[in-house]
Design a protein that fits this description.
A two-stranded antiparallel sheet has the order 1-2. The two termini are 39 Å apart. The protein contains 19 helices and two strands. It is globular and about 70 Å long. A hairpin with a 4-residue loop joins strand 1 and strand 2. It is 73% helix and 3% strand. The longest helix is centred in the C-terminal third of the chain and has 32 residues. By secondary structure, the chain is mainly alpha-helical.
């Protein structure tokens, strides 16, 4: 029997092979098998949650198998609290994506589900990899299925959006590869890609500051593009707008977190001195991204594009909390990664629901639909409130911790970032008012119907976690405590004030 983490990577790949073997006409069978595979993957991933020791330091569920021993390449995977939550988010969102794709995707069905299954395996691999070479393989493997998801099943400008996404990510990835190779040849002792060994080596023999600056820039640019941070964000609105609904969910929910995760796992612990030097720049860009993303979202006429720009603003908060470099800020940053995946993923799902009925995302095409579809409207309003940080919903907890961490680092940072909270409420509530309330301006809106069972089955799990984190966040924060302390210790930060429980 395969170890647990490897099983989570292999099962979606087995499903992908099954998609290739199925006859082209068996579309419902392809849908059913792929959904079953991803549900099984989620069920197995719960074993990570129940088997994870929150009090234990270091990585758990470790697997080490020599891959290319002559080059120091190993198949080495393991998780800490950060990667645990991101893997669980991945296995939760993937079956939801496939479920809401059941009716809308009608062309090249088995190829669509093949792409999603490969994508899931690669995403889990990214969050579990503890070998630099293996991490890079999984990181690059994500590009191809996501390119096809946008380029084949996207909107009318899908090829432009897909190529732009591919080129932006590829440029950053190549710079990261150069950085990985430099570390391998110059700072890995006997020549190894083993991340844990490199951690230890850089503690005993730190990389010179000048070299750290270049390496942080190489890794950081790859991660900043993926986040995406301002001004590297321009590929994101196009990719979101043109991607199919499930593509937008997985892009916002998981793929963007690869960038923030990369900073935590690689850039900050490997290059601590350079982190200090780059912190003012990254904080400035984060705050600019928070405000810029909110202001641009405010003037959008396309609902999906509005939600896409909101991601630029929300991920700016994640980066600000991370580079506050204290316990509260970093804990809030990781929790907000999960919150953003749940809330923004749910928003894209709900936008897709209404698009399938009216085939338009133009805000002016709606108005007054709360009277026609009250259940859908109520769910949309709840998710909107979670996105803008209403107390008792998940977004509030993450933003509160991030702003608490920012205050400890600098009152100026926190004051500027807080304007993003206000702007977020303005553009989201204004959009809700125009879409759901007021008179019904278009006769076609009278024909709208409530969600079907597949759409309910997709959004209800997200609502449960939105409420759970909002009411009792310590379920998830307690998993992060030890890992956050270790990341800060690797950076050389002494924990002085612990999060109250």
């Amino acid at each position: 029997m395969l170890p647990l983490l490897t099983t989570l990577i292999v099962i979606p790949l087995i499903g992908a092979v099954l998609m290739l073997l199925l006859p082209r006409k068996q579309e419902n069978l392809a849908r059913g098998i792929s959904l079953f595979i991803t549900v099984i993957t989620f069920a197995i991933s719960l074993g990570l949650w129940f088997g994870f020791d929150k009090t234990k330091t270091g990585f758990q569920f470790m697997e080490i198998v020599p891959w290319v021993p002559s080059l120091g390449i190993t198949y080495q995977i393991g998780i800490d609290g950060v990667s645990l939550l991101l893997i669980l988010l991945t296995t939760l969102l993937t079956p939801i994506c496939l479920l809401v794709s059941w009716d809308p995707i009608k062309k090249h069905v088995k190829e669509y589900y093949f792409s999603f299954l490969v994508l899931e395996a690669a995403m889990i691999g990214v969050f579990a990899s503890l070998d630099l070479f293996l991490f890079y393989v999984f990181w690059e493997a994500i590009l191809i299925p996501m390119y096809f998801l946008i380029g084949i099943w996207g909107g009318k400008n899908r090829l432009y959006a897909a190529i732009k996404f591919f080129l932006y990510t590829l440029v950053g990835s190549l710079l990261m590869l150069i950085g990985i190779l430099y570390i391998y040849f110059n700072h890995s002792g006997t020549g190894t890609f083993d991340l844990l060994k490199i951690y230890e080596l850089t503690k005993t023999a730190p990389i010179p500051l000048g070299v750290q600056m270049w390496l942080f820039a190489a890794f950081g640019l790859a991660f900043a593009i993926k986040v995406p941070m301002f001004p590297f964000h321009t590929w994101l609105p196009d990719a979101h707008t043109e991607a199919p609904t499930a593509g937008s969910i997985v892009l916002a929910g998981i793929l963007l977190k690869m960038g923030t995760y990369g900073f935590l796992r690689f850039a900050i612990p490997l290059f601590p001195s350079a982190t200090d030097s780059f912190t003012p720049l990254i904080v400035i860009l984060s705050i600019v991204g928070i405000i810029y993303g909110a202001l641009v979202a405010m003037v959008q006429t396309d609902i999906k594009r509005l939600v896409a720009y909101s991601s630029v603003s929300h991920l700016g908060f994640v980066m600000l909390g991370m580079f506050a470099l204290n316990f509260q800020g970093l804990s809030g940053s990781v929790l907000q990664m999960i919150n953003h995946g749940l809330s923004t993923g749910a928003l894209f799902l709900l936008v897709g629901v209404i698009y399938e009925r009216r085939h338009t995302r133009d805000i002016d095409a709606y108005g007054g639909i709360a009277a026609i579809v009250p259940i859908y409207s109520t769910i949309f309003l709840i998710v909107t409130m979670s996105s803008i940080g209403l107390p008792m919903l998940n977004g509030f907890v993450g933003e509160f911790l991030i702003l608490t961490g920012a205050v400890q680092a600098s009152w100026v940072w926190a004051a500027w970032a807080a304007t993003g909270v206000i702007l977020s409420a303005i553009y989201m509530l204004w959009m809700v008012q125009r879409v759901f309330f007021g008179p019904i301006k278009h006769e076609a809106n009278n024909e709208l119907t409530e969600m079907n069972w597949k759409e309910y089955a997709g959004v209800i799990p997200l609502l449960i976690f939105i409420l759970w984190i909002g009411v009792y966040p310590n379920t998830f924060l307690s998993v992060l405590d030890t890992s956050v302390k270790e990341i800060l210790a690797a950076k050389g930060v002494v924990i002085q004030t612990l999060l109250l429980k």
